[in-house]
Predict the structure.
Amino acid sequence: MSPVTIQHDCAREGAIALTPIACKVLSVSQETADVKAFRIQALDGTKPFECRPGQTAMLSVIPYGECMFCVSAQGQDYLEFTVKEVGYVTEKLHALSPGDTVGLRGPYGNWFPTEELKGKDVLFVGGGIGLAPLRSLLTYLLDHREDYGRIDLVYSGSTPDDLIFLDDITNVWPQLPDVHCHVSIYKPCEGWEGEVCYTAPFLEQLKLSQDNRVVVLCGGPSLFRTCREMLVGLGFAEEDIITTLEMKMKCGIGKCGRCNIGSLYICLDGPVFTLAELNKIPGSLH
Amino acid sequence: MSTLTKDQLPQLLAALSESATVYVPAEIDGISKFAPYGSAGTGEPRFDLVNTMLPPKDLLFPQSEKMYRYGIDAEGQPFINSICESTDVVLFGIRPCDVRSIECMDDVFLTKGFADENYQARRQHLLTVAIGCTAPAETCFCDSMGLSPVQAPAADILLNETADGRAWQITAQTEKGQQALAAAGFSADSSESTAAEVSCSLKVNTQGLAAKLDAMYDHPLWEQTARKCLTCGTCTYVCPTCHCFDISQENRMREGTRFRSWDSCMFFAYTEMAGNHNPRADKMPRVRQRFLHKLCFFEQRYGKTLCVGCGRCVEKCPVALDITVLIDQLNAAEPVQPAGEGE
Ligand code: SF4
Ligand code: SF4
Ligand code: FES
């Protein structure tokens, strides 16, 4: 199998640079106690801009500030952002209701290699909020189902209450042809009949062959470390393990300097990298 | 050879001032910087200063700059309006190192897919008149960074003192420079300035440095270097090439302004993310980032070193953390690859 190559330096004509456009909140869904998914639409009812799975955008809660998020899914007339409440701006964002105004600029960064994945089996591995970036690609593959092979999702959270998009995972996606969702929680919990297992050992149990299969991995630092070690141990090539990097961002267009790692700017050149690439970038895996 | 005698200088400055604000080196309250010619407080231009204490970068990239206004209008409709102000500016008496720093900032703000509108507008309205250096300061080392004290290829106009010291050889290096001089009633050479080469006494060796640094990310020298740094950020504020910025806002009732302001990779909060995660929480990674960005990463990305040898940080660092000494140490260091990394 030829290794996956990912495009970088994807700054695109037509992307909105620093001044956002005014948009509105179309709908809000409470995913967990501290995670909400927002659908955002331009004021005229259209999709704010086209973007590809994995790309990011700067969502601005007027007047409190702005934050960079991956676009977790998109529809005909909206972009979806899945946001965990972790600080000042996300707290203000969580207070928004449908109809409220927000600012939006983007799209920024590179994207998952949707062309290169054609014909391949794809294994998604994520934990907690890490499903958000995975979801952008997963929903894209589901929209173009015939182009891709078997899809597996290995997803976990501390408790059942930490799992986002639970309805999709338990009811919708498993009904689709050759889509397999493997869900676990970390600690036993009353009423939970599924797996209780950390993500890395869960991966080991599943015994999915690395043959013609590419892995897309997103999660917090410890999940990311244990899973990438497990996957490499299971024989997956580092070129076939794709992930997204997180870094503080302010401008999103490669100017403010903040997201610089080595000679790269994560906002422009990332966030999507293969593990093989990250191994060559000083400081990216720390 | 076309010359501008020193007596003619006020005439040229006056002519240029007719259609633009002309900034000249000045010393105000003990701080030297570029200030508007002819305005109260600026005083006589100080062309005797080799380098101003503050670099001229704020004319292109102000220390604080409004980007857009937003709010809810009288009809209850949301609005977001960008603010992009710029007027014609002449930077008169800029030194070759600072001209080079503008080239570095051009790379950052104008290339790689996105042109920064505010920077671009200011840049298009800028005319640079460089003055070559006859007596570099003790802390100058531009000729070790691939520049020359008497050449500034990116300047619109270059002035180099003639042998008798009473005039400058005047060279128009761009069409814009040519036109500005013609409009002011002066003629200029269009071929390269023939000034005799001048050399800095402070030297460093940067041969192969970027490539060597590429393998020195985990070198113990960084810990040693960082030990005395106060992370005060002085070095980044006085540096003509440092260009990091922060974005924040100021709100009043139903309206607000979002603006950017200079920031520094030396500060803890620079990389602190929501949820308290900070990849550069310690001093060492921040100090390392500053020097690697200048001497290695920028070179890899844009093909230039992000240090122009102006010597300002050497002069102003309160604990004498001297980039030229560090470069010597880096050259002398044995490269080490820590266990467990590399191929
Ligand atoms: S000026 Fe000196 S002490 Fe201050 S941050 Fe820079 S290197 Fe450190
Ligand atoms: S790093 Fe120091 S010497 Fe180099 S350009 Fe910046 S202020 Fe000047
Ligand atoms: S966020 Fe500003 S350079 Fe990447």
User: Anything to note?
Assistant: The two ends of chain A are 29 Å apart (CA to CA).
